[in-house]
Amino acid sequence: MSNKSASTIHLHTDEPEPPPSKKGCLGLMLGAVIFIFAILGGLIYLFTRGPSPEVQANEQRTIQACEQRASAPDTSEAERFSIGESCREMRKQYVKKYGKEPGV
Questions:
Q1: How far is 66 from 62, CA to CA, in rounded Å?
Q2: Residue 63, exposed/middle/buried by CB under 10 A (0-12, 13-18, 19+)?
Q3: What is d(CA 67, CA 86) in angstroms, rounded to the nearest whole number?
Q4: How would you write the pLDDT of the chain (104 residues) with one tens digit per residue?
Q5: Which of 92, 73, 93, 75 is nearest to 83 (CA)?
Q6: Rg of the chain on CA atoms, in Å
Q7: Is the pTM value of this prediction over 0.70?
Q8: Which residues are within 8 A (CB) of 94 and not within 5 positions of it... i.e. 6 or more apart?
Q9: Where is this region: Disordered (predicted)?
Q10: Roughly how many angstroms between the first and final C-alpha of the chain, as a whole number?
Q11: Which of 28, 48, 60, 83 is positioned for an S-S bond with 102, CB 3.0–4.6 A?
C-alpha cells in the first residue's frame, strides 16, 4: 500500500467538529431579507400604479352598453329598473376611481 491513506480524513476521530460558519448563516439570512423586500416592493408597485387608459376606455364602454340596454324598447319595466340601478352604481364607482364622469 502507498502512503495515500495517511492523508485522508477519517470520520471516526476524537477531534471535535469545527463550529458552523457564521458567514454562511449571515449570508443566508441576508439573502432571505433581500428576497422578502423584493417581493414586498413588487406587490406595492402592482397595487399603487393606476389603471391603464385601455382599462378606463373599457369601463366607459361597459357603462355605455349598460345604459343602452336599460333604455332598450324590449326591456320590461322591472328589468329597466334593475339594469338602471346597476348602471348608476357602475357610474358612481367610475367617478370614485377616476374623479370624472365617464365619456368626459
A1: 6
A2: buried
A3: 9
A4: 445 545 555 566 666 666 666 677 888 899 999 999 999 999 998 888 877 888 889 999 999 999 999 999 998 999 999 999 999 999 999 999 888 888 75
A5: 75
A6: 34
A7: no
A8: 59, 60, 63, 101, 102
A9: 1-22
A10: 94
A11: 60
